[in-house]
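Why predict the complex rather than its parts? Because the way molecules touch one another can change local conformation, and only a joint prediction can capture that. The input here totals 1313 residues.
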Amino acid sequence: MASKAVYSHRDPMLKKRDDFEDILEDRRNSSDLRYALRCYAPVLYKELTPCTAGGLKGLVLQSDQLRYVIGQVSKETGVTVEDVQAEASAILDEMAHRLQLSTVRFFAFMLCKVFKALFRSICVNEEGIQRLQQAIHEHPVVLLPSHRSYMDFLLMSYLLYTYDLALPVIAAGMDFMGMKVVGEMLRMSGAFFIRRSFGGDKLYWAVFSEYVKTMLKNGFAPVEFFLEGTRSRTAKSLTPKLGLLNIVMDPFLKGEVFDVCLVPVSISYERILEEALYARELLGVPKPKESTSGLFKARKVLSEDYGSIHVYFGQPVSVRSLAEGRVNRGQFNLTPRHIPRRPGEDVGVFVNAAAYRLVRAQEENMVLKPWVLLASLLLQNQPAGRGPGQGLTLEELTQQAAWLRDLARQFGAFLHWPGTAPPGSGTMPGLCATETTHKGTSVKNNSPCPEGGAGAPEEELLRRAVVVLSCASYRNQGLHVFLRPALLASALRTASSSRKRQRPPPSSPRCHGDHPDVFNSFTFLRNVFSNEFILCPGAAVQDFEEACYLLGKNGALQAGQQDILVTERGRRTLAFLAKLLDPFLQGYQATEGLTEKQFVPAVRAFVIKQLLTGRLGYVEALSSDLQKNALAALLRLDAVQKLKGGEAPGTLKVNAVVVNSLEDTLGGSLPTQKAAVARL
Amino acid sequence: MASDSNGGSSDSQRIAQHRLSVIAGHLQRPAEGYTALLAAECKAQGSKPDVSSDERTVPRRRQEIMKWNGWGYSDSRFLFNKKGQAEFTGKRYRLSGMIIPGLRDWMESTFGANLQHKTPAVPVLNSSVVQPPTLNEAFVGELKSTGIPFSHDVEDRVFRAHGHCLHEIFALREGKIGRIPDMVVWPNCHNDVVKIVELACKHNVCLIPYGGGTSVSSALECPPEETRSIVSLDTSQMNRILWIDEKNLTAHVEAGIVGQDLERLLNESGYCTGHEPDSMEFSSLGGWVATRASGMKKNIYGNIEDLVIHVKMVTPRGVIEKSCQGPRMSTGPDIHHFILGSEGTLGVVTEVTMKIRPMPEYQKYGSVVFPSFEQGVACLREVARQRCAPASIRLMDNEQFKFGHALKPQVSSIFTSFLDGLKKFYITKFKGFDQDRLCVATLLFEGNRERVLQHEKQVYDIAAKFGGLAAGEDNGQRGYMLTFVIAYLRDLGMDYYVIGESFETSVPWDRVLDICRNVKARIVRECKDKGVQFPPLSTCRVTQTYDAGACVYFYFAFNYRGLADPVHVYEQVEHAAREEILANGGSLSHHHGVGKLRKEWMRETVSNVGVGMLKSVKDYVDPDNIFGNRNLL
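Output of the joint prediction:
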């Protein structure tokens, strides 16, 4: 039943979503101190074996799993078992949280103050909270919030405390531990720290996974981690990381618990604290190291207005129902379960698919503010001569926004549109809420940044890029709504242009329905962009059907016997959708023959050159995130190979044939211009 | 049951009897020899009415003493009397004639059952719904000339068309009859069976062996697609002990004998087999062999495969048996293992030589209360590790503990009830056991008196390490009694919208807790998903310990009011539960067998090659599928 929430995207219009409740309102009207000190008695897991944070450590060190690995490591390295044990114990000390109610209360108090200063409201769906409470009682729970800001996990703990729910233990990156006092405080509020990479370290992995599993199995606390692994700098969801998900599913697959509940949580910020930071980071300014003094310096953000936050606790997903018929749990029957073993292929495929579905569940419940739609419109109508559009007047914008709002609703977007007032008046407060708005409107007003003209063209370009990328990060929040129809729109465009050039061969090898070329083109684009967007592996047919269904319902398309027909009304929709993807298409048209490390700066240099000469139209191509994804896609598609060993390990070698064919297809789908593909 | 049926005879009587039997050994031997002689001339006897049949438990016409649409003896059943109190009728069991005051409350609170809502069974078999028999005239003609008794009476046929799966009994209670055997034959000895099988082969008739009829795997169901005449071969009249060999401690027995007769007859000579499956009142020796049965006292006596020394089976290819009675042989794969568990697909087991033991000098029940199931399992594991398991050790979970409590008969004295109250107070208040978590292990010790007491202490010491408290003999004995009456209870439940059944598995020690938790939870979840309106009873117990694992029994029942097709729901849930068992490393069956109910999982259980091996044996032994019950494969 719970799984349906994840699987069904048949008709997004029918999706029933809960109402929100602002939790800051209460805080503004009553004492924060009393709130922080109030009685806290959460509902706990029904089969909880009570134990302290210290007791947990003992359980982990005594576990069969860890003892086995310790024995193995000792045999392999020749170090005595006692020494390895001591090492494991040290790893655990470095990792373990020391959840303490007093620290949580302190945080609760501080965060009240901070949140009230920063945000207008924090809205939570209380039905989701109730579902979560029940889930916590019934099964071990894993919380999977989306990750856009450092704020996320503080916010999560704060919310759970507010609603009198069991406080989570949170997997955090080791970088936080570097922050002197704060690191320890985070530890005491339930964070446990893991190294960013520990690839070959068997002992570390064993300690880590056993620690997480023990907490989960005993029902000690909900385990929280970020599927995306890191904060998304672009506000698009990142392709999920599977390590921790594998770990939390393991107890179920091995029968050690009856079920595990995964709760996707969507946190939508009206404006992200790190906004400007991200844009610069994407353009090559490295991320500042996490430090207490850095945090202190960042206090200036307190004086700004960051709008509201919407937190949506999604439908709990039962791992059991997800795995039903997909995983043969009997595969663990023939070896003792404590011996680490590579699980079967079905498990890998299953965890991967589950991860994608969960990220999509996060996406689906992201609340979109009006500005998200406006940003999409504005980005398509950039002035500055080089872009395709000419800028917009305010009336045009309002009118288009109303159109886009309806379209988004039809596609099942979760819009937060203030009132039922006409969009013009409705959106303005939203517009004014963000600082970027001013920059954004400056784009609209045909005056991109102060026209001092003094700076070199490159600097000016970069300055403009910061604005565009910030804008893009708003547009990206809503991309998932339009993604599938947009891919179809682009595919239609490619198909129609290639048909003009040549008739498609009578029988395509992989065809869907009666329009093989469109489907092929769709799959191709989907394949290329599968690093960029959340596209569930192996779901091409479903995605295609969903796109057809949405566009058909919208009236933009009519699926005929022989062909897909574009209706008159649909042209506008399709044009909008296709344009939505153009920046990405263009961005992908760059390949290099450099070592991996050099790749990003070199591409950046190249793209700047292209932009200045006007051969590339979209400043967004400068985003390092996009470039990295493009590289990953090229590697995946065998267009580029990473050379191992030899003179320059890590050198990328371009496979000319594949690149040419890619280039053809990508280029063919670009009506605006035939962009040159660089080769160095 | 043995303990119950001779519950009347006290220990001293039993010892005296034993002594007597040893002294009288010489006198008795000729008597047994006489039986053997009789058996050899069984043909002559078969044509006459069986003189000795009135001494035996199972007559040819089973319906004379047993229910045609429920479990056990016609005179024994649970019912709610006029005062609304539960009562067990008859005189056969310890519980017979007693009032069970707690049962009604338990049924109402556990299932949401209500005495007002009854679902009575069809009282008598309506023979018009039964298909007329398809007879193979040539076969019948030749059979007549052999003088072997047979019948195509409707009641006889219906009685042999089912085991005791829920769906089988449910259909009978509703008066629905499917494909049933076309006739029943009662061979009287091995040679009769040889003749019947020869005739069946000659005339291409389908044979389905029938022993005690206690199957819970759909093994006795007639395949609906079978177009040949189906003949049920009822072994119940082949029920003699042919000889007892005191030097080697073996007995040679006809395979149709039921457990209680075998024990009773052996006891008369001072011996026992010690093989006591829960169904031993009605199940037969041949059935045990054909399904790989297990008895509750296997820790001392072993399971059927450990007890069997020699087996004779009649197959379409002829008789299969070993040439000697060596206690162990290295002569290629043990051919007994083609027979053990063959579930009537290869032939009919006619005679078995099995181990016997002198009757135990002393028997003692016991019980231990544990604060939680986890600790109980840990204790059983430790007992198994130290290899000091008593004759029987079983661990019931909390729900079953409560169930056992509900079955306490009305106490005769105020003193006993006061004592009970005191015990409860001590355990829950003084020792701090949670009433909703505690569980109980029942124990049965057997053997030399001194050693029993020593053994008992050893086990209680281990239990103490796991927080166990000795809880008296009474609780233990009641636990074992429960196994014999639980099947009767199902009939009571079925009178009031409650259906249920038990199923079992075996599982490695490290998985025991996981499988118990997961299967019970799966049952609850499936019931909810399938629209069952009331929370089900989903409970388990660990009934056997082995060096490397344990046997786990699940009981599952629910109130089906509001369901259109309760049996289908039941089957879906049971199916899901079995999948859960397999996914958690449990076996397809510990001792119930596969039958037709579980054969869909055979391939994954024994691998493709394994299925191929079994198939090729079947193809060789029975190329025309004379033994066509289609079990197993």
